[in-house]
Amino acid sequence: xxxxxxxxxxxxxxxxxxxxxxxxxxxxxxxxxxxxxxxxxxxxxxxxxxxxxxxxxxxxxxxxxxxxxxxxxxxxxxxxxxxxxxxxxxxxxxxxxxxxxxxxxxxxxxxxxxxxxxxxxxxxxxxxxxxxxxxxxxxxxx
Length: 142
Fold this sequence. Notes:
With 142 residues, the protein is an alpha+beta fold. It has one domain (1-123). Helices cover 45% and strands 20% of the residues. It is built from five helices and four strands; from the N terminus they run ββββααααα. The protein has helices spanning 45-63, 66-82, 89-106, 117-120, 130-135; strands at residues 7-8, 15-16, 19-30, 33-44. Helix 1 (45-63) packs antiparallel against helix 2 (66-82). The chain is elongated and about 60 Å long.
């Protein structure tokens, strides 16, 4: 299954069986108004935890009182997700698409079996290009 395959972390470049794609929030709150920005981050569990904790520290200052109501539960849920084994569902989907692209390029469209880990490793490309994949039906060219 694709979720057991290794993929390269876009942050640190290390191969991992547990690449996560989570949404992070940056919030600025002034007593009568709030502004926030959501970003999709793809990284291995270790890099994702570092990103979440760094973002939490920044948000303590910028989100002030809203931090305990909105940001803290969100951070705890994301940290919980980083300790779950395997890739995130959206990463598995990207691995599947990359596998299908490799089969198409190799002319093996009739086979339903995924390639071995060795043939797929390193050929997935940057998983952070997912937003570009969503905007068009064609995956980014290499």
